[in-house]
Amino acid sequence: MVLGELSRRLTSAMSALTGSNIIDEKLLDAVLKEICSALLESDVNVKLVGNLRKSVKQKVNLKDLPAGVNKKRIVQKTVVDELIKLVDPKVEAYKPVKGKTNVIMFVGLQGSGKTTSCTKLALFYQKQGFKSCLVCADTFRAGAFDQLKQNATKARIPFYGSYTETDPVRISKEGVDKFKKEKFEIIIVDTSGRHRQEKELFAEMVQIQQAVKPHQTIMVLDASIGQAAESQSKAFKESSNFGAIIITKMDGHAKGGGAISAVAVTQTPIVFIGTGEHMHELERFSAQPFISKLLGMGDIQGLMEHVQSLNLDKNKGMIKNLEQGTFTVRDLRDQMGNILKLGPLGKVASMLPGMGQMFESMGGDDTSGRVKRLISIMDSMTEKELDSDGRVFNADPSRMTRVARGSGTSVREVEEVLSQHRMMLGMAKKMGGKNGMMAKMNAVGGSPKNAQQAASLQRKMQSKGSASGLPLPGGMNMSDMMKMAGQMMGGGAGDMPDMSSMMSQFGDMFGGGPGGRQGSPNLSRNRGGRR
Ligand SMILES: Nc1nc2c(ncn2[C@@H]2O[C@H](COP(=O)(O)OP(=O)(O)OP(=O)(O)O)[C@@H](O)[C@H]2O)c(=O)[nH]1
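Above: inputs. Below: predicted complex with guanosine-5'-triphosphate.
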């Protein structure tokens, strides 16, 4: 989870607000005190924290608010707006243009994650259809070129560098010129790490910049940099005048506040955050959803965009099956495939209001390994078995042994899959048919499809507040949440994967699925050990 500790404390401060019936100065002060101390302990600049506190107090004048206004909502909105201000300098970052050369130069401290982020970014743009490449101008650190070469090869991104040339200015110029001639659209130049005391290295960075004339210079900051972020980022700003920031290592236990403060100190926007060592662990940064997720309020709009961008299997056959109250083993296999495509469950959970913290409190365990194992079991079944309702295995239990052998798993795991399938089939029976849940859900308005509707729904969900400890909106229980999320994402609408059943599956995997059902097969308890 991104900035887990800060998120936990901010979420808890906000839930004190949503859980209280009386909103007065005393409560506001207590909430603000907790928010400010969480920010300070995360290394957010003390002046910025002071300004935030003052600004909220000024804007929320509880005594002068007329009777009948929703004080809770006003306080909540003001706090959220002020937190957004911390990470949003209201400056537009450069946007690469298709069909044109876009040179992007990376600068930053040693070990901040530049080389890794360069490849991540090249891959990100490559996935967006840009012709991307990398130039290694880090001649300072032995092994830097090898690292970039290795990353680039893995990601299939063309690269340029030299083992013998020691002049980074010359290398970067040669590399950029070569790739420009070859009509590359994104040319990313990695430079060596340096500290503000290193005057010569700073001068060299400026020379590289003059040689390659980047359209965008990005400073990379490690989330654990702490208070040093202010002086370092100021020094880099003065010499390289970078136009964007990438904060790396947001996945760890880093406090992150120092790096966040660099935004205000340099008036420069964060464009991406690094959330892991793997090449795809780079997220586009957007202030409002970031704060919303940090406060445990989720990011429904982001989740919908994420789901849509994945081009998940439409599963029209499954929806038809569900409508008729049935569910085949193949349907389960397809749904599991969609779950895998969604990425780490922790990421998905953090986009649903209240789920991020809950997921963490359950150990933040990623189930993708287990899901892959279950898929491999179903991939070892025959077509007939996949398209069945699972009863064929009862008729011939020796088939379970064959499937277990074929998938390199155990009979117990095959039984688990079949038991999971039986449970889904049972749900499908309840959902399908004229009087089923699906028909009722569709009758009450179907599913809002566009992002605007999702955003408004999220606002409604958040504004309801919660009486429970964690801000599960409107006092909803997990079952309501999952149903709602599923409904929002097209459950039963016919042209999206059936997310409602996927959410139900999540619930069952976590051991407390729809309706708080317990005793269903709990995959987290069965770590796929062979027998
Ligand atoms: N957990 C995590 N690790 C990261 C992330 N980004 C980079 N790293 C790791 O941080 C370490 C340093 O990253 P590099 O990319 O080598 O850093 P650099 O800035 O190029 O280093 P210099 O060339 O010495 O300046 C490596 O072990 C990376 O795998 C991230 O977002 N999350």
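The radius of gyration is 26 Å.
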